[in-house]
Write a structure and sequence with these properties.
352 residues; alpha+beta; Arc Repressor Mutant, subunit A; 3 domains; two-stranded antiparallel sheet; 7 strands; globular; transcription regulation
Length: 352
């Protein structure tokens, strides 16, 4: 578990809003986390350990079982950002779950999640053993509560699990969990899990759209793999902001505001690391352009708009500056290469 991983502050915002609603001090919840109430602003970024610190503080202030249900009930599909839209455009619930496993970094989960088929459906479990004992129960309740809400939004109807299993050190009454989940609940189970029926997994999602799914998946992939070779700490933070907002590319002033510093400080600190802002910005746009050209059938006008260009011609000039070829030529070359690879892989296979 990488406790230094930088992530969106959505979880902390929901924790603090829950604290406020039950009369707990937000200041006390933030104690020792290195955060202040600025974390409630849109675009704020935190490290995983900081979320854990807030969780432990809130549990200490409100230790009664069932707290995680209150927190989890605040989530919506939009809480997942771009991943939520990708899942919404999938063909069915099963495909949406597969997509979520492909982009685990974007799921907001603080614990490992596993999908295990069984006769009649899939068992989706959450491993809270990676957490300190005082945080385990609340995080498990929150995770399962979130899944119920999000799956209902995906299906555009109430989602009722086959069964919910809870492995909590201190549980609320079975009635409370059964009222929330609307299904049988096993307390004292070996792990925390939601059992999803095959019928729900196969249900067509009302807002399915293959083109949208492919385009959004390309953006998710960009979010997950865009930082592998940047080691300068501040440049990585800037890249994370640029990538997380790559669907609507921000200018330098907006990135600086998201990081809580002035635009002048942003440029100065990047210069000290040898990473000019324009270079990072074009890196993100260039990588995203390649994903959209290669993984979708979007036209150049749509891709240009996605990348923040006012017209396709401006995007084409920028892409040619990055790669040496036009977007159309790059796409054609990629598809020709893919066809060649497919043909070579089939060579020697006897026809039937």
């Amino acid at each position: 578990m990488n406790w230094r991983e930088v992530r969106d502050a959505t979880n902390v915002r929901h924790l603090l809003n829950t604290a406020h609603s039950i009369g707990c001090s937000v200041e006390a919840c933030l104690q020792g986390s290195g955060l202040d109430e600025g974390v409630l602003s849109a675009g704020a970024r935190i490290q995983r350990w900081q979320e854990l610190a807030v969780i432990r503080n809130l549990v200490a202030l409100a230790p009664e079982p069932g707290l995680g249900l209150l927190v989890g009930s605040r989530y919506q599909l939009t809480s997942l950002g771009l991943l939520g839209y990708t899942m919404l455009a999938c063909r069915n619930l099963h495909e949406a779950l597969v997509v979520s496993t492909q982009f685990r970094e974007l799921t907001l989960s603080i614990c490992p999640v596993q999908l295990q088929p069984f006769d009649g459906g899939v068992r989706m479990s959450l491993d809270h053993s990676v957490l300190p004992r005082d945080a385990q129960d609340m995080v498990a309740e929150r995770g399962l509560a979130v899944w119920k809400r999000i799956f209902g939004e995906l299906l555009q109807r109430p989602f009722v699990p086959l069964r919910v299993e809870l492995a909590l050190s201190r549980a609320a009454t079975a009635d409370r969990y059964e009222t929330y989940f609307e299904c049988p609940v096993v307390i004292g189970a070996a792990s925390n899990a939601v059992l999803i029926a095959d019928a729900d997994l196969a249900s067509a999602l009302p807002l399915a759209n293959e083109l949208t799914r492919n385009a959004c998946a390309a953006l998710c992939r960009q979010l997950c793999d865009g930082l592998e070779d940047v080691v300068s700490p501040f440049a990585r933070q800037v890249l994370q902001v640029l990538i997380s907002r790559s669907g609507e590319p921000p200018v330098a002033a907006e990135v600086a505001a998201a990081l809580g510093i002035s635009e002048r400080s942003l440029h100065r600190r990047l210069a000290a690391e040898g990473q000019p802002f324009r270079q990072l910005d074009e890196r993100v746009r260039g990588r995203l352009a390649e994903r959209l050209l290669g993984d979708s059938d979007l036209g150049l006008d749509a891709i240009a708009a996605q990348l923040g260009y006012s017209e396709a011609a401006s995007f084409s000039r920028a892409f040619k500056r990055w790669t040496g070829v036009s977007p159309s030529h790059w796409r054609a070359a990629q598809r020709a290469a893919a066809l060649g690879l497919e043909s070579s892989s089939l060579a020697g296979v006897p026809s039937r």
